[in-house]
């Protein structure tokens, strides 16, 4: 005899709700443990709550050169602005792109906002300056060489002429001075034929006129004093070295060498600036199997570059180097071995990333890309604390009103709603705390507003489910079947409602800029958590409570009293009995 077929489980049935509750409990424990393990037990506060300055910058390009605003250049600009802000000694500052053409700069409290605006709101300044002297970033350097010493070819560090010749590397080899990354400028497409082999770098031919004697920089004594006192290991000192220095003046600067160690430089007046660079890019030299950076100059820039390289090629190290200075910091200091003009290449200790980064920096300095301040918001720490307090009070009032309404109308069912709200609040809090270090999420005032609005959205889902259960009870069903039959219809309504809310939050997040995105992000996050809580907590806890006498028996304070709800009596089928005939003729 064949075994009877088992009936299919109804759509709303849930066999083991306890397992579902265990899953969400494990998730909450894991998130809570993640907060304590990572050390981020509180959400990171935004500038409007913690205090500080928020600057929104919009990139602009010259007519016909709109392509300059692209992802590569925007990321390069973010790196430049980040270095400027860090140069002020600021900690935990944030610089990030927003959309295609906006950059958001968040500077915490304790920083001069006017100085910060000056640092981040100006276009990058790129200059090519001749190197006069170089030393380790934290040591006391040798004095600035006098004109007579340079003309005689005497070394700047006290070595003999013979030692100086040994210290001069051939083209393409690493510079012993340890200057940053690029080490040798080799022949470009339009570079003249190099000097005959065997002629030492820095020694002119007999048939050529003697090398021009460099003039002592104005204020050499003051410059030497700054150079001696400069400590490139101090971020504040590095950020201040280029302040109020005009291009035509000599200066001191800091830069990292190939070993990622800081060095300090004495630099002459700028001979070429970023506007003279037409294009620059990092690329792989297939013949030599090494990464290089190629540069193309404009017509006027070619003449300037030819003039400076002609001078530098006849000098000894380190005075045959030119420094590529971006915003007062040396990003590269290659050595010149011959006169160059319209094209040049920087080769040396490059990998793909460093070559492309330097190419982007050089190109960025030449691109017609400027930034316009869209908004600047400065909030004091006291005002931020008051706004946070006001936001928390508003949230508490909203939550209290919702709880009072639930208790007055749903009575015992209100406990299910309150527990669900607490679970949703716990998940939201832990995720906000973890998303701060993970993706840079900061809780600002609009985000607090989004969390308050989410209380109503979450409570609405519970109300939909509770009303469906009540409708089933009004139809004369007991609580157990009512809970299971109500779930499929309530589920559809909840999913459609939450989908509309999430879609609105996503659109708002994509089309807005600045703090409004905090509201949209929080609204979207809490909407997703609403689905999780209703499916993995509210539904299974309601299934379990339906088996208890308090709720299943329809206690007046359960909120599910059939009499109070006006339930119909259970439908019963009855058979109609024919009455006996009274007329004998009908028998």
Across the major sheet, the strand order is 4-7-6-12-11
Q: Shape from CA axes? A: elongated
Give the % helix. 40-55%
Task: Tell me, rounded to a whole number, the average pLDDT.
Answer: 75
Main sheet overview: 5 strands, mixed, barrel
Radius of gyration: 37 Å
DSSP summary, beta strand count: 15
Cα separation of the termini: 49 Å
Determine the strand fraction and express it as a percent band. Answer: 15-25%
By secondary-structure content and strand pairing, the structural class works out as alpha+beta
Number of helices: 17
Poorly predicted regions are 139-214
Task: Write a concise keyword list for the protein shown above.
45% helix, alpha+beta, 15 strands, 5-stranded mixed beta barrel, 5-stranded mixed β-sheet, 587 residues
Tell me briefly what this model is.
The chain is an alpha+beta fold.
What's the structural blueprint in terms of helices and strands?
Blueprint: H1 17-38, H2 47-50, E1 52-61, H3 71-87, E2 94-98, E3 102-108, H4 113-120, E4 126-136, H5 147-152, H6 161-167, E5 182-186, H7 220-229, H8 235-240, E6 251-256, E7 262-267, E8 272-273, E9 277-285, E10 290-297, H9 299-312, E11 322-326, E12 329-332, E13 335-336, E14 343-348, H10 352-366, E15 369-379, H11 381-410, H12 413-439, H13 445-474, H14 479-511, H15 516-545, H16 549-552, H17 562-565
Parallel strand pairs: 5-13, 6-12
Antiparallel strand pairs: 1-3, 1-15, 2-3, 4-7, 4-8, 4-11, 5-14, 6-7, 9-10, 10-14, 11-12
Helix pairs in contact: 1-12, 1-15, 3-10, 11-12, 11-13, 12-13, 12-15, 13-14, 13-15, 14-15
């Amino acid at each position: 005899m064949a075994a009877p077929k088992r009936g299919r489980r109804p759509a709303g049935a849930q066999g083991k709700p306890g397992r579902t509750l265990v899953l969400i409990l494990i998730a909450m424990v894991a998130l809570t443990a993640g907060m304590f393990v990572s050390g981020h037990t509180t959400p990171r506060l935004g500038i409007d709550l913690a205090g500080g300055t928020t600057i929104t910058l919009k990139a602009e390009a010259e007519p016909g050169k709109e392509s300059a605003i692209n992802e590569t250049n925007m990321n390069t600009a973010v790196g430049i602005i980040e270095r400027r802000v860090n140069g002020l000694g600021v900690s935990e500052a944030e610089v990030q792109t927003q959309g295609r053409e906006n950059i958001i700069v968040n500077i915490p409290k304790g920083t001069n906002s006017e100085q910060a605006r000056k640092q981040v709101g100006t276009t990058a300044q790129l200059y090519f300056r001749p190197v006069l002297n170089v030393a380790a970033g934290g040591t006391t350097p040798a004095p600035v060489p006098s004109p007579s010493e340079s003309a005689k070819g005497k070394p700047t560090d006290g070595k003999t002429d013979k030692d100086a010749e040994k210290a001069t590397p051939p083209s393409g080899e690493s510079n012993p001075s340890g200057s940053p990354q690029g080490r040798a400028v080799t022949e470009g497409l339009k570079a003249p034929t190099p000097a005959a082999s065997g002629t030492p770098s820095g020694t002119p031919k007999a048939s050529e006129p003697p090398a021009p004697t460099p003039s002592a920089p104005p204020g050499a004594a003051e410059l030497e004093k700054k150079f001696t006192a400069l400590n490139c290991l101090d971020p504040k000192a590095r950020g201040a070295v280029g302040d109020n220095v005009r291009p035509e003046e000599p200066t001191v600067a800091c830069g990292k060498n190939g070993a990622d160690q800081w060095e300090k430089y004495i630099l002459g007046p700028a001979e070429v600036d970023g506007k003279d660079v037409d294009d620059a890019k990092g690329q792989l030299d297939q013949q030599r199997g090494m990464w290089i950076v190629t540069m193309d100059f404009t017509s006027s820039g070619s003449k300037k570059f030819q003039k400076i390289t002609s001078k530098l090629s006849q000098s000894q190290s380190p005075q045959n180097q030119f420094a590529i200075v971006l915003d007062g910091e040396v990003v590269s200091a290659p050595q010149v071995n011959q006169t160059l003009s319209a094209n040049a290449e920087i080769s040396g200790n490059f990998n793909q990333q460093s070559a492309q980064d330097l190419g982007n920096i050089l190109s960025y300095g030449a691109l017609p890309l400027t930034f316009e301040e869209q908004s600047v918001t400065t909030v004091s720490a006291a005002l931020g604390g008051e706004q946070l307090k006001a936001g928390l009070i508003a949230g508490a009032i909203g939550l209290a009103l919702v709880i009072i309404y639930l208790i007055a109308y749903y009575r015992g069912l209100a406990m299910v709603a309150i527990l669900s709200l607490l679970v949703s609040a716990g998940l939201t809090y832990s995720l906000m705390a973890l998303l701060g270090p993970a993706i840079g999420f900061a809780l600002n005032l609009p985000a607090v507003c989004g969390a308050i609005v989410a209380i109503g959205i979450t409570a609405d889902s519970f109300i939909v489910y509770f009303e469906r259960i009540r409708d089933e009870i009004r139809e004369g069903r007991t609580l157990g079947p009512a809970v299971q039959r109500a779930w499929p219809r309530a589920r559809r309504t909840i999913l459609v409602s939450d989908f509309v809310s999430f879609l609105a939050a996503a659109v708002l997040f994509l089309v807005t800029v600045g703090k409004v995105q905090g509201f949209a992000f929080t609204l979207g996050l809490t909407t997703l958590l609403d689905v999780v809580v209703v499916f993995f907590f509210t539904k299974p806890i309601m299934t379990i409570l339906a088996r208890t006498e308090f709720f299943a028996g329809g206690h007046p304070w359960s909120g599910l009293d059939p009499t109070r709800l006006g339930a119909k009596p259970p439908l019963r089928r009855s058979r109609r009995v024919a009455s006996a005939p009274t007329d004998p003729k009908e028998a």
